[in-house]
Write a structure and sequence with these properties.
Residues 147-273 form the Palmitoyltransferase DHHC domain. With 318 residues, this protein is mainly alpha-helical. The protein is built from 9 helices and 9 strands.
Length: 318
């Protein structure tokens, strides 16, 4: 992919700061970075904790208010197993989306006659736009590298700086406080699964609340729950409100994410109406690029790391 003059003005972050590499501090070594990715943002951590608490509250109401007091043992076992399985997958997807580097750090350089190609998978290495590193690339006259002035990183195409993560994220869709992380190349699968499973358990909870209300209207309220009738009504109404709210929200997010994957255009790229400069692929190929090759049941598992095949190179230079 050749970088044209359009690239110079595509993003306000891409101003001629790359001419001052002496201002950058060398990046830490790979060993000192550790293996866990976690964003220390107070708002994001609070939102993540609230997410887990809301799922636990829904599980509490479903089990102790609706299913355990039910006289239909088969109904309780089937719905309890289904709800808790979906809730477990939702929380596992949330955990993976939160603790997965949107673009894991792995850098190699291949110098050709006309261009230097950088191969990365994940978040752009922070502070690598140093004078020594740029000189080591042995760039020829006319070749240009772009530097993000905020994190002193050599900035590849389709990367945007996140002010919360304080990093440039390749194919950044958006920063989601509910998962306390950016949604990027490496964790988009887990975010999509999280929204899907939350939507499913919300729908399941609404259906069970509806059936439980009908059952309680037909029977004695004192026999349809272990709690008092007023407490039961309050708990069910709160669950109904929570489930309806998250069903609408996560369904919309799931739809927008699938559309973004199929069109191979992130939310930020759509918002900024950026010109497409990357190869156009089929919708099925774009889906496999996110969820893995080939199609399998592992697409639905938050425990399966997608095999994305050969990664696309991040080309910085003309």
């Amino acid at each position: 992919m050749m970088i044209t003059p359009v690239h110079r003005f595509r993003d306000i972050e891409r101003k001629p700061e790359y001419l001052q590499p002496e201002k950058c501090v060398p990046p830490p070594s790979r060993a000192s970075l550790g293996t866990m990715w976690f964003i220390r943002d107070g708002c994001g951590i609070a939102c993540a904790v609230v997410t887990w608490m809301l799922v636990f509250y829904a599980d509490f109401v479903v089990l102790l208010v609706m299913l355990v007091p039910s006289r239909d043992y088969v109904y309780s076992v089937i719905n309890g197993t289904l709800f808790n399985t979906l809730a477990f997958l939702a929380l596992a997807s949330h955990f993976r989306a939160m603790l997965t580097d949107p673009v894991s750090i792995s850098l190699s350089v291949c110098l050709g006659k006309k261009k230097a190609v950088f191969f990365l998978s994940g978040a752009v290495p922070k502070g690598n736009a140093t004078k020594e590193f740029i000189e080591s690339l042995q760039l020829k006259p006319g070749q240009v590298v772009y530097k993000c002035p905020k994190c002193c990183s050599i900035k590849p195409d389709r990367a945007h700086h996140c002010s919360v993560c304080k990093r440039c994220i390749r194919k950044m869709d958006h920063h989601c406080p509910w998962v306390n992380n950016c949604v990027g190349e490496n964790n988009q699968k887990y975010f999509v699964l999280f929204t899907m499973y939350i939507a499913l358990i919300s729908l399941h909870a609404l259906i069970m609340v509806g059936f439980h209300f009908l059952y309680c209207f037909e029977e004695d309220w004192t026999k349809c729950s272990s709690f008092s009738p007023p407490t039961t009504v309050i708990l069910l109404i709160l669950l109904c409100f929570e489930a309806l709210l998250f069903l609408i929200f996560t369904s919309v997010m799931f739809g927008t994410q699938v559309h973004s994957i199929c069109t191979d255009e992130t939310g930020i790229e759509q918002l900024k109406k950026e010109e497409r400069r990357w190869a156009k692929k089929t919708k099925w190929m774009n889906m496999k690029a996110v969820f893995g090759h080939p199609f399998s049941i592992a697409w639905l598992s938050p425990f399966a790391t997608p095999d994305q095949g050969k990664a696309d190179p991040y080309q910085y230079v003309v």
